[in-house]
Amino acid sequence: MRRVSPNGTGGNTATRADLLDAIYESCRTLSRAQARDIFEMALEEISDALVRGEPVKLRSFGLFSVRAKRERIGRNPRTGIEVPIKPRRVLTFKPSPVLITSVNTGRTGAEQKTCE
Asked: What is the pTM of this model?
């Protein structure tokens, strides 16, 4: 499912197309268009929840949440000049213990699931 990254670093990157192909391959009863629609709807729902400031918890994967950062004074490392940094919202991700274990052991942890 992985391709060589386009930036030439040689690292592997799972792309949106790769994820869509994996969904299609695991559920052959769906057409490619149906698989794409389901995938896009899922991403849209996750994005919309995060825009509203709601956390998104995916069991056995992790928790996406939005955190507000206050205004502060930063410093340009090259010149040393102080610069105000505006308040903003940042997206954070906390992996689940299941995902952490999978990454550290090299096992996927997920069973192959098929559509019925």
From this structure: 0.72
Helices and strands (DSSP H and E) totals, the chain: 3, 7
Q: What residues does each domain of the chain span?
A: 12-52, 53-107
The C-alpha atoms of residue 70 and residue 74 are separated, in whole angstroms, by 12
Class of domain 53-107: few secondary structures
Please write the tens of the pLDDT for every residue from 46-89. 999 999 999 999 999 999 999 999 999 999 999 999 999 999 99
Separation CA 57–CA 44 (nearest Å): 15
Question: Residue 32 and residue 86: Cα distance in Å, rounded?
Answer: 43
Reported as a single tens digit per residue, the pLDDT across 10-19 is 558 889 999 9
